[in-house]
Specification:
disordered C terminus, globular, Rossmann fold, seven-stranded parallel beta sheet, alpha/beta
């Protein structure tokens, strides 16, 4: 791989189906049901009003399941003669990812996690799945600054790609996105060795500001290819995932690339739901906390747990009085946890800015203490929110 090149994560293309075979009736794939999407749909939440930037190989804009979901786009590659307005996918990867996130519920084809979300398609990878880091960085900044015709803005960036080495410009772009209250979701990578105790890293997934996603199979086991490391926040389906593909068709692919859009779509559902309940916009930390509340722990070894995406975990009452009380309790929980995290972030910032051995040792202890306090406060608030 060239020094200034980003690659999509390798995936397993096991089956392609033509549109004629599958467009006769709507198909909700088991993986979409497994994460509890239908529970949120039944409550009226489908991702409406949430814009997700899909930074990938582009998208087949005429695909029947995606053409109504696309709100805009930009081509950062040299394909299509470098025409910035042509975002057509020449690989298939981006179209597959887009379908998992937001395939339309239109009575035919496939359905995505958030079937009414809108997609901003940012093409940074070519037909071979290659592109420059500069294009990736530019696309992230574009997503941050983009505004729709009705004032819409991006609330989630979905990145089913990765680098083996960190890059300072990429990291600065990620931090800017988070500072603008955009949730950045990225793949853990497909370099795993099948051993949960060993660490494999891909960037930007491994950056602490990013929501890093690993892959599980249908048995809720970590996929053999999935990277594992201490920065992986949660796991989502990533083995034999059926979604949209080129030529108005469909494909079954595997990889952490497929896990990421499950989480990106889930975040859209949560943003719509909780901004409706709270009557205000959520910040990035609040979205992260809500996402992690919608996970279920499973043991993967005698001393290690991981978290699986589970949108059915929190089942709140629809009774108006209880709804109001739950809203107040959630506000308290989010507020006190965020205050605790601010303290932790302050110490981490100090650690980054001071480099002497004595200062680092002292600040490391403070960071550890702050993290413990943060966790204790979250536990207390969680208990109080259930009372």
């Amino acid at each position: 791989m060239k020094e200034n090149e980003v690659k999509l994560l390798p995936f397993n293309l096991s089956k392609i189906t033509s549109s004629a075979e599958k467009f006769a009736e709507e198909n909700i794939s088991p993986n979409i049901l497994d994460i509890g999407s239908q529970y949120k749909w039944s409550r009226g939440y489908t991702g409406k009003g949430v814009v997700i930037a899909v930074i990938d190989t582009g998208c087949e804009t005429s695909h029947p399941d995606l053409k109504d979901r696309i709100i805009g786009g930009y081509n950062f590659t040299e394909e299509h003669g470098g025409d910035i307005s042509i975002i057509e996918d020449t690989n298939g990867h981006g179209t597959h990812v887009a379908g998992i996130i937001a395939g339309s519920k239109n009575g035919r084809g496939i359905v995505g996690v958030a079937p009414n979300a809108k997609l901003l398609i940012l093409k940074v990878l070519d037909r071979t799945g290659s592109g420059s880091i500069n294009s990736l960085v530019e696309a992230i900044h574009y997503a941050i600054d983009w505004r729709g015709s009705a004032g819409e803005r991006v609330k989630v960036i979905s990145l089913s790609l990765g680098l083996k080495k960190p890059d300072s410009n990429l990291y600065e772009a990620i931090k800017r996105a988070v500072a603008h209250n955009i949730s950045v979701v990225a793949a853990a990578g497909n370099d795993g060795d099948g051993n949960i105790e060993t660490n494999e890293y891909r960037y930007p997934g491994a950056y602490k500001e990013v929501i890093e996603v690993g892959a599980i199979n249908k048995l809720n086991e970590i996929a053999y290819f999935s990277n594992t490391n201490e920065s992986v926040d949660l796991y989502a389906p990533g083995v034999n995932i059926h979604s949209s593909f080129l030529k108005n068709g469909f494909a079954t692919l595997s990889g952490t690339s497929m896990s990421v859009p499950h989480v990106s779509g889930a975040i859209a559902l949560l943003i719509e739901e909780y901004e409706d309940l709270l009557g205000r916009e959520l910040n990035e930390m609040e979205v992260y906390l809500l996402l992690m509340e919608h996970t279920a722990p499973i043991k993967v070894s005698h001393n290690k747990e991981v978290y699986l995406l589970n949108l059915e975990k929190k089942q709140y009452s629809d009774i108006e009085g209880n709804k109001k009380m739950e809203t107040i309790n959630r506000e308290k929980l989010l507020k006190c946890f965020c205050e605790a995290r601010k303290t932790q972030a302050f110490f981490t910032k100090c650690l980054d800015e001071n480099s002497s051995i004595e200062e680092r040792e002292f600040l490391l202890e403070l960071v550890k203490e702050s993290a413990q306090i943060s966790n204790k406060i979250m536990d207390i608030c969680t208990i109080n929110s259930k009372k």
